[in-house]
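In the previous lecture we treated proteins in isolation. Real proteins rarely work alone, and many bind small molecules. This record shows how such a complex is specified: first the sequence, then the SMILES for S-adenosylmethionine.
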Amino acid sequence: MAATNDDRNTERHQKWYEPDLDEVNPQIRHLLENYSKISQPHVVNHVNEIRTKGFASNPYPCIGSYRFLNLTLLTHPLYQSILETLKSNSSAIYLDLGCCFGQDLRQLVLDGVPSSRLIGLDIEGPLMDLGYDMFLDKDTLESKFVVADIFKGELQGEPWTGLVERGADVIHCSAFFHLFPLEEQFEAAKSVAKLVNKGGIIVGRQSGSVKPAEVPAIKAGTTSFRHDVNTLSGLWDKVGTATGTKWKVEGSLDEVGVQNKGKNAVEDENSRRLLFTIKRED
Ligand SMILES: C[S@@+](CC[C@H](N)C(=O)[O-])C[C@H]1O[C@@H](n2cnc3c(N)ncnc32)[C@H](O)[C@@H]1O
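The predicted 3D structure, ligand included, written as tokens:
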């Protein structure tokens, strides 16, 4: 699996380590000022410090290039409807898979969803711990953060088996599947499928492509597969056949946030943002 938390490729990792910021986007500023109560002049320094610590722990492009400051769930076309579901259905569960610092989960809390029905999951406990430092909510947030490997599934026992039993109604899964080659995405997706209640959805954003293919992954020598909507749909058809479930995939490709210019670009001219909704129909 394409882990990056080794120090053997530091030169390569520096490609996606941007200089410290001198401003942040208005959405994350709003979240940090209104949810975390960080005062206006301290927001940027605070974010720079968290980025430095996070990258030292795990040198993902999404950390080095500050993509974790983009509240991707907010940009999803279903955001308002997801928000309404989570607020009005007192048993609805949201799971943020590969949540890293958990920024989208905090936005839902700011927007009125009870934090006890929001769960974060990541293989890297230290990144989720850093989320508490970023949002200053260790003592107030009631969400559970689960350290688990999506590839290990039930072999991990609790808390994974508890998640499967309870099931989730909305899974947010951003910048996650695109980390892996197609065969591993299939294994991961079969695992994710077990976590979704009937009628539930998986939503997210990831690197897609107008020419779907394996491309060099963030760990040197490995690949990851970039989808268009058709290949993503094909993957979930396969997942349905393998797991006795049925899925409908909708999505779109656009150029929002695509970093394919300049010598340090981690994406290429075929790269696009893929926004997707995968609904469990049966
Ligand atoms: C590229 S980051 C995206 C973080 C966040 N979703 C976002 O959009 O900002 C991918 C996250 O997936 C986690 N991850 C990688 N492999 C995983 C696995 N096998 N099981 C669970 N989480 C994993 C990483 O630790 C990391 O936090």
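Summary for your notes: Residues 98 and 122 are 5 Å apart (CA to CA). The radius of gyration is 18 Å.
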